[in-house]
Design goal:
The protein is mainly beta. The protein contains 2 helices and 28 strands. Strands 3-2-1-28 form a 4-stranded antiparallel beta sheet. It has a 4-stranded antiparallel beta sheet with strand order 4-5-6-7, with no helix packed on it. Strand 18 and strand 19 form a beta hairpin. The radius of gyration is 19 Å and the shape is globular. The N and C termini lie close together (5 Å).
């Protein structure tokens, strides 16, 4: 099994409880209710044929294809920015690309492309809370590239760079919901870089390094919406870590949960209520479901559902109705209905991508219906471009 997977993207959650968490739970339920009439678009990064698949989610969790967009080459990660852009990390082209989203139909128009260094190998990326900044984990040269995204000019401007230790091999970046702290999963040296960030500013200031055991290999990261816990999918050690986030952003170990041997967990998402954690197990071809204890952040296994071959990334729509997984091994998207009371997932069906697509990343963007009504449609679909086939996982 190739030791590569897309980082998971942390989704906000809402704490529960009789006193401390009740207001946040009510806020979360209002958010879900407000999104019920919104439209959700789903975007899939196809590594091998260097395209983005664009879909519209219907009320039953089906995905209706609307566009295929060429990328510079080999997108391994994709993220939707709150400003209304979709951004890809194009590892074969050593580039970061931004696409403007038409809120009426979800279709994309290329807005900007920025080249990283020839040795960068941009592996994954994340947008800062509230948008404006994009952080790129470059596994090749062990750096985190930072870009400022300007809505008016639709441009990506370089805005600094963080150097991890030589050989660190960063695979993912995650923020606390308030944007004050950032964490970098370094697969190569089994560490997590801890950083402080001033809101509305790009720069990251180091708070030190959290050390895992030497044989670990952290991949996906997700932070709960109250900013108290960081969840880590450790691909190499087949474990899930629960790390407490202290008052000054530093991490401490709260729990270490062992997954079955050779499951290789990679991508993580948390439902908006903050009660459930979903984990894509690359080698087991399934998703593990965990209940999150609202008091101490610990997790308890409650179920498992099958996926296609090698699920490398998960996403969840902001209305908390559906979960989607991309399957690199057989170029499909697995679709599930989420029961918000139990956290269990019910299989809806499978959406095929092109046979040579090899999807690696997936993201969802929810747009209010009012925004969609007043925006003209974009131009037609773009032709598909090709690239050399990536070596498949054994």
């Amino acid at each position: 099994m190739s030791e590569r997977a897309v980082s998971g993207r942390g989704l906000t959650r809402v704490a529960t409880g009789l006193r401390r968490g009740a207001p946040l739970l009510i806020l979360g339920l209002c958010l879900v209710a407000g999104l019920a009439r919104a439209r959700t678009f789903v975007y899939v990064a196809n590594y091998n044929n260097s395209t983005i698949g664009v879909y519209t989610e219907d009320h039953r969790g089906n995905l209706v294809t609307s566009q295929t967009v060429p990328t510079p080459g080999g997108p391994e990660s994709i993220v939707a920015d709150p400003l209304g852009y979709v951004i890809t990390a194009d590892s074969l082209a050593h580039a970061v690309s931004a696409y403007r989203v038409n809120p009426a139909d979800g279709r994309l128009t290329r807005a900007a492309v920025r080249l990283e260094s020839p040795r960068a190998n941009p592996f994954s990326l994340t947008a800062s809370p509230g948008g404006h900044f994009v952080y790129v984990a470059n596994s090749g040269d062990s750096t985190v590239g930072i870009y400022r995204l300007r809505r008016g000019r639709a441009r990506l401007f370089p805005d600094g760079r963080v150097h991890e230790a030589p050989g660190a091999t960063p695979y993912s970046v995650a923020f606390t919901p308030n944007g004050r702290y950032a964490y970098v999963a370094n697969f190569g040296n089994a560490t997590i870089g801890m950083y402080r960030r001033t809101p509305r500013h790009a720069a990251l200031t180091s708070l030190g390094v959290f050390h895992e055991p030497p044989d670990d290999g952290p991949y996906g990261l997700a932070v709960g919406p109250d900013g108290r816990f960081l969840y880590v999918a450790d691909f190499r050690a087949n474990v899930l870590l629960v790390l407490g986030i202290g008052a000054h952003g530093r991490l401490s170990l709260k729990d270490r949960v062992t997954e079955p041997f050779d499951h290789h967990p990679d991508s993580l998402v948390i439902d908006p209520s903050g009660r459930y954690l979903f984990v894509a197990n690359t080698s087991a071809n399934d998703i593990s479901i965990f209940r999150i204890d609202q008091a101490d952040g610990r997790i308890t296994h409650v179920g498992r559902v099958p996926t296609g071959g090698y699920p490398f990334s998960l996403t969840l729509d902001r209305a908390a109705r559906f979960v989607f997984a991309v399957n690199y091994g057989n170029s499909t998207i697995s679709r599930y209905r989420l029961d918000r009371h139990s956290g269990l997932l019910t299989v809806i069906g499978t959406t095929p991508e092109a046979s040579d697509a090899d999807p690696y990343g997936i993201t969802a963007l929810t747009v209010p219906v009012s925004a969609a009504r007043h925006t003209p449609k974009t131009a037609g679909s773009h032709p598909v471009s090709g690239s050399d086939r990536k070596q498949a996982a054994p």
